[in-house]
Amino acid sequence: MANNFDGDIPEDIVREILLRLPVKLLLQYTSVCKTWLSIITSPDFVSSHTHRALMVSLIDPTLLAIGGVDELMLFSRARGNNNHSNINFDRLVMPRLFGIKPLVINSCNGIICVANLANQNDLVYLWNPPIGKCRKLPDPPRRRSYRFKIGFGYDSISADYKVVRCDYDYNDVRYLEARVHVYSTNADCWREIRPTICLEFRGLWGASIVVNGVVYFENYDELISFDTHKEIFGRIPLPSSHRLHMSNVLDFEGAVAMVFGYVGDEAGAHLWTLDDVSGRVAWTKRFSIDADLHSGLWLKCYLGGGQFCGRILNRGTCDVYNIMYNYEKKETKLYRNDLDDSTVLTGMIHTETLVSLGGFEQLE
């Protein structure tokens, strides 16, 4: 490695250029010279690069698609070939350390939360794939129930990544009191908190997203919110009406959203967002989705640019296909990846960053 940067370009200009490069190139360029290494690894540069990457992701977000065991794929609209039905994914290899059938919880600022639930290990990891580092969290408190939900989010006020875990004590076949523990990367420990609302068990909580530091869980006919800074739960009823769920809970351009199919006067599928209306949280119907209510359409993630990732049923063959649906153009494109099993179980927005947390260790 060279000892100095001998170019004629001022260092501040070099920094501005480096800020616009992807993580993989930046990791390679740390070997160019000591000056570049110092710039790229400085906390100020990492923070600025992360902020810019998150801003870019609003225009061209990257989907972390989760398939079968150990199958993680990264897809960006900029990488796709619009002239073909096949879309190539960049594959991520899940470290063996995470065990068998690890569960991907969520992604925040490039950090992916992964839980190993096999063999009663119940371990949780925070992982940044491109820099090849992870942090094993302390063992969570012992529990008496396997009915639980894990969420992961970032508290920007305290600059703290938090994992929230809810599980249920039970009596015979009824699940009663919810026990809640929160892990903080700043404190590096789990703490039990008492929820201010009754977290009623209504079946296993569904998918979760994080919007503005708040984790949202699906819970049958409602959403449960968890504010990562205040560590307070909330309950949000879904829009009242006869409805058919047609999506996971979505992050739609910075707003919580879901798609519902309706019968009667509101026949068809519509996307609703959770908005602040005169200081009160309320659902707003935004636009219609061009879909047959009997098509088995299910939207899993919003990619930006009018595009959703999801699946649809071919009623003729009963085959299920992955799709990209553009609500602005009313276009549905079928696609397969290069794996034998083309089923994408779920997906989430993931932005590659240089973020490295205290306690991160290099993976082999």
**Sheet/helix structural class:** mainly beta
Strand content: 35-45%
Q: What's the CATH superfamily, by name? A: TolB, C-terminal domain
| CATH class annotation | Mainly Beta
Count of discrete alpha- or pi-helical segments spanning 4 or more residues: 4
How is the quaternary structure best described? single chain
CATH architectural name = 6 Propeller
The succession of helices and strands, N to C, reads HHHHEEEEEEEEEEEEEEEEEEEEEEEEEE
Describe the global form. globular
Helix content: 10-25%
Mean pLDDT over the full residue set: 80
Give start-end ranges of low-pLDDT stretches: 78-88, 337-342
**What profile does the largest beta sheet have?**
5 strands, antiparallel
**Radius of gyration based on Cα positions:** 22 Å
Strand elements, count = 26
| Sheet with the most strands: spatial strand order | 4-5-6-7-26
Q: What separation lies between the terminal Cα atoms?
A: 23 Å
CATH fold group = Neuraminidase
* Total tally of structural domains: 1
